[in-house]
Every structure is written in C-alpha cells, then in structure tokens.
Design goal:
The protein is α/β, with parallel strands linked by helices. 44% of the residues lie in helices and 18% in strands. It is elongated, with a radius of gyration of 25 Å. The two termini are 24 Å apart.
Length: 372
C-alpha cells in the first residue's frame, strides 16, 4: 500500500507562526516546492520514498494559504473559484467567514449558494453560541420536543413559552420528533399561532426534518387535516409565504374547505440544532494547531499510546498551521506503524482540503464537517 504526503524541507522558509516580526509569509510558489513522500507498508516495515509534489488546483492553493495564515489571499482566491461551481471552494469560504465571525458575509454567500445550487446552504455555526451569549434577561430555557408529539409534549411547549419573559428568545428543537398524533398536532398548531400573534421571539432547530415528517403524513391516503394545519402553521411561523400559499391551495382541494389565511408575523429564526455529544472516547482538540502550540499533537501521541483505535475530534479546531503538518504526519505514521487505525472527524473544509493536499487522507479516515 502506498501512502503519499508532503514533508517540509529543513531549509524551507518558516511558517508565519515561526517567522520573526516583520517577516513576510511564504508565497504559494515557495510552498509548492515541498517534498512529496510515499510510504510503502510492507512486511519488512515502512519504506519512505521522495518525489516532487505541488498544489494542483486553486482549491489546493487556498488550503495552503489559509494554513500559512494568509487569510486575505485565501478569501480572494476562493471567491475567484466560486464561479466554477466547485462546492469545495464554497464550503471553505463559508467556514472562513464563520471562523472570522463575519455573519453578514456568510448570509450573503448563503443566499448566492441557494440561488446557484437550488439547495439549502450551510447554517451559521455560531447561531446557538450567539444566543447563549445574549444578556440574561433575554434568555429562556430551550425545549427539545420528544419523539412523540402528543398532547403532553404540546403542554410542555406551551409552558415553556408562557413561562419565559416576553422579551426572551425561546429555542424549540423539533429534531427528535418521530411521530405526531392528532391531539399533539392540533395543540402545537394553536401554540405556534398564539406565539407568533403575540410576536414572541422564537428560534427553531431541526425544523427541516420535522417539515419532511409532516409532508410524509400529508401524502398518506388517509391523511388528517390537523397535520396539514400544523404544517401550514409551521410555514406561517417560519415566514415562508410561498410554501404556505401552495399548501393552502392543496389543503382546500383535499378537504373541500377554506384554508387559513396568511398573516404578516415576526418569523422565527432557524438555527442549527445543538450538536449531540458523541458517546465515545474520542480525543477532542480545539483552537489552532501551530508550531508554537504543539501540545495538541503531543496529546494525540499520548492518547494513541493507550488506544488501538485513534479517534480525534477536530470540531473545535479552527486551523492547522502549515508548519505543523510534518509533525502531524509523523505522529500519524507512528500510529500506523503500531498497527492502529486513525479517524479524524469534524474538521472544517479549510482543514479538510489541507489534509487532502498533504496526503493525510491516505494516513487516516477523514469525516469532515461537510461530507462530500
């Protein structure tokens, strides 16, 4: 088996993290002269052979520029690539804006994405953390509705909204719902209607999944009117007038009655559902991995010493510095040499493309934030 990856030459220009004050970051042409190594796993051991390697596309170059700390150049290059329709560039730019906390630029890119690809764009990752950072008087206990939306679950929803301060943001998580009975659907529709008319500040997560569930119920031969009415109320809550009007026409035809009328309300904000903490023994890293802060890679080595399956969660890692790649590769090689399997998960698109360019995808199983 041949595994290819890059290794920095000893006489190379140092990465931005290690450069003296006032030094200039290496240009992409300099970075592209790195050495490509091929590791052959054989019964006799590990054999490393050297050949030349260089970035093969603008996406490759953008990944290396970002790893080298050249954020402005990274952004310009990625924006130039967007017109090609390369989804990798779009996701890299989304993650760059998210890391830099540039929500307005993220939202504009999301709009362009939806128009270009006619599909839902990524969700602003910091939506929930921003809500958590709101002033105390504007906070409210969030509610995750259970697997069965029945009358009891609806009562919990009503209590959650009514007990919160009038100015509070109420977060409702629909992502766990698997079944909806008629009583629950009816009560939930009434609660959402009252909340929107009262101009309560609602945030919802898992709503796409819940909408899909209601659409499936409504397609059934013996569908119930209450499920249609709940979906209409949900569209009203989200401010999705076109979806509301289209469904209202279908409802009128299906049940031969007049549908509810659209009203202008304060639309709920859609946010990403809080991530479920994985129930495993993964090593979780955070921040930036740089030559000046290589404790993270030392943690990987320590963790690997006591685990046959090396599982590293990079969800909270914003950047892997170009100068740390060779050490990262060395740690992974040691794990492979000891017969261990390696999985790196949750990393952003910028890191994922760096891993691909540097051949780390051939040393470890990668499970990125944005699956291909």
């Amino acid at each position: 088996m041949a595994l290819s990856f890059f290794k920095k030459n000893k006489d190379k220009t140092p990465s931005p993290a290690n450069q003296p004050a006032g030094a200039t970051a290496p240009e992409i042409d300099d970075l592209s002269t790195e050495t490509l190594l091929t590791m052959n796993m054989a019964t006799s051991g590990i054999v490393v052979e050297e050949t030349s390697g260089a970035p093969q596309s603008p996406v490759d170059e953008a990944a290396i520029l970002y790893a080298s700390g050249q954020n402005d150049m990274t952004e310009r290059l990625l924006r130039d690539v967007l017109d090609t329709g390369d989804l990798r560039a779009w996701y890299m730019l989304f993650d760059l804006y998210d890391i830099q906390n540039r929500e307005k630029d993220f939202d504009q890119l999301a709009l362009d994405f939806a128009v270009r690809f006619e599909s839902s764009p990524p969700v602003w990752q910091k939506a929930l953390s921003s809500a958590a950072a709101a002033p105390k008087q504007d906070q409210a206990a969030s509610l995750a509705l259970p697997g069965l939306l029945d009358k009891t679950a609806a009562a919990s929803l009503r209590e959650c909204i009514e007990s919160a301060a009038k100015t509070a943001v109420v977060l409702i998580d629909f992502s766990h719902i698997e079944m909806v009975d008629e009583a629950g659907a009816s009560e939930c529709a009434k609660i959402l209607n009252s909340a929107t008319k009262a101009r309560r500040k609602l945030q919802v997560s898992g709503v796409d999944r819940f909408i899909a569930l209601l659409q499936d119920l409504n397609r059934a031969t013996h569908s119930r009117a209450v499920h249609w009415l709940l979906l209409l109320e949900l569209y009203q809550t989200l401010g999705q007038e076109d979806n509301f009007e289209n469904l209202a026409v279908d409802y009128a035809v299906r049940f031969e009655v007049s549908p509810p009328s659209w009203s202008e309300v304060q639309a709920a904000v859609v946010v990403q559902a809080a991530p479920v903490e994985p129930r495993d023994d993964a090593l979780r890293l955070s921040g930036e991995i740089t030559p000046a802060n290589d404790s993270a890679l030392q943690e990987v080595g320590t963790y690997a010493a006591s685990h046959d399956e090396v599982l590293v969660d990079l969800t909270q890692v914003t950047r892997v510095d170009y100068g740390s790649v060779s050490q990262f590769i060395s740690v992974l090689m040691q794990c492979l040499g000891s017969g261990k399997s390696i999985t790196l998960r949750g990393h952003n698109a910028l890191i994922h493309e760096l891993f691909r360019v540097m051949g780390i995808d051939q040393l470890a199983h990668l499970v990125p934030l944005h699956p291909a």
